[in-house]
Amino acid sequence: MTTFTTPADILPTYEREAADFQAVRNKSLFEKSNLDRMLGITPRNVAQRRLLDLGCGPGAPIATYLTDRGLAVTGVDGAATMVELFAATLPNARAIHADMRTLDLGESFDAILAWNSFFHLDQDAQRAMFPIFAAHAAPNAALMFTSGTSDGEVWGHAVKEQVYHSSLAPDEYRALLIANGFKVISFRAEDPNCQGHSIWLARFTGG
């Protein structure tokens, strides 16, 4: 009988797999066109735009690219070894060991990114993230995250270990975004130009 991992296994798994994940992570920056779309709607509320990278991992290639584009990146990850690798990759960036589900930094950002991290949360935890996104969003902030394409749970792999994923239905994501002060800019389901990732882009319009 197959034994499935749970959301509670995610952080311990990435803790164990951090170094191997960094070694095998695709660094071709296939995400670039979508990151550029996010940057295109990221406001210039301060001299240097600030980005919150939730589930930042080891920092390459995404946070490295965004830093090179001039953003001040704050990386947050619940796996301590990932935070250590992020800090080593980007010594001038800020790295924080924290669980995104309880994050309360008391500050706002011009862009919030949760790339291939948010979808490891269970469905109720995903629903609870939208007020956290809003609490950390500066006026007109950009929000980008990846999700599934339909309501349900699936299992994949992080290097050698099984990992949990879940998704809400697209209509529920839209409703949650709107209810928490975000305007949906686009949803690209299984984008063929981004290795099949499903990507949400929204702008914070709430107070």
From TrEMBL:
<dbReference type="GO" id="GO:0008168">
    <property type="term" value="F:methyltransferase activity"/>
</dbReference>
<feature type="domain" description="Methyltransferase">
    <location>
        <begin position="52"/>
        <end position="139"/>
    </location>
</feature>
<dbReference type="InterPro" id="IPR029063">
    <property type="entry name" value="SAM-dependent_MTases_sf"/>
</dbReference>
<keyword id="KW-0489">Methyltransferase</keyword>
<dbReference type="Pfam" id="PF13649">
    <property type="entry name" value="Methyltransf_25"/>
</dbReference>
<keyword id="KW-0808">Transferase</keyword>
<dbReference type="GO" id="GO:0032259">
    <property type="term" value="P:methylation"/>
</dbReference>
<protein>
    <submittedName>
        <fullName>Mg-protoporphyrin IX methyl transferase</fullName>
    </submittedName>
</protein>
<dbReference type="InterPro" id="IPR041698">
    <property type="entry name" value="Methyltransf_25"/>
</dbReference>
